[in-house]
Amino acid sequence: MNQKNSLGIDHCFGELDNPFKLFEEWFNTAKKTEINDPNALALGTSDKEGNSSVRMVLLKGFNEKGFIFYTNLNSKKSEDIKVNPKASMCFHWKSLLRQVRVIGKINSVSSKDADEYYNSRAYGSRIGAWASKQSAILNQRDELTQSINKFKKKFPDVNNVPRPNYWSGWNLSPTEIEFWLDGENRIHQRLKYIRLDGNNWKKVLLSP
């Protein structure tokens, strides 16, 4: 029988008052068990008409301020965020039978942070940021190939590819974070953190 914590749920939920500490523990475990991309998450946004969209993106950092990812600022996700900054995330670690759901508001990262991450990327990825008009219609795949070749000629120095002004990062600052653990007969275990103010959180159990 699994050891339980003081709330009567599995010990993997810990006794932590800060959800970012718990996320860090779960995320570090997922890094060891997930075959591919433990930092993959489903990002949900909606446009000004309320039409929702979900896509997979990669988490590139997190701290007490939120969860960070990077993208083209003219992409569909970014256009949604500009008109409606409320969004959600869902991490699913199948190897652990765990999920983490996040709800909150998205803000842009600083230019310094965007530059630092952009410059850490592979040369081809930095060129791709220039070459791809993300989410725009392509008449032929060759259009993209030609654009990539054009920017390789423009920026031949692998150590000197400037960040496009239309490429940066977003940070989702959570108001709620839910941790989910698969249970037998669909009797799952769910722990939700609700932000009260600043770094103060309230913990509640949810029925499966």
Short description:
The protein has 208 residues and is an alpha+beta fold. It is 27% helix and 36% strand. The chain has helices spanning 19-33, 76-83, 111-120, 123-131, 141-154, and strands at residues 40-46, 52-58, 61-63, 66-72, 86-93, 98-108, 167-181, 189-197, 200-206.
Structure, described:
Helix content is 27%, strand content 36%. By secondary structure, it is of the alpha+beta class. Strands 1, 2, 3, 4, 5, 6, 7, 8 and 9 form a 9-stranded antiparallel beta sheet that branches.
Structural class of the secondary structure composition? alpha+beta
Provide the CATH top-level class of one domain: Mainly Beta
Proportion of strand residues: 35-45%
Helix content: 25-40%
Series of secondary-structure elements, N-terminal to C-terminal: HEEEEHEEHHHEEE
CATH topology of one domain: Pnp Oxidase, Chain A
| Net shape | elongated
The termini sit apart by 20 Å
CATH-level-4 superfamily name of one domain: Electron Transport, Fmn-binding Protein, Chain A
Q: Give the low-confidence spans.
A: none
Question: Radius of gyration from the CA trace?
Answer: 20 Å
What is the residue-mean pLDDT, rounded to a whole number? 96
Largest sheet: 9 strands, antiparallel
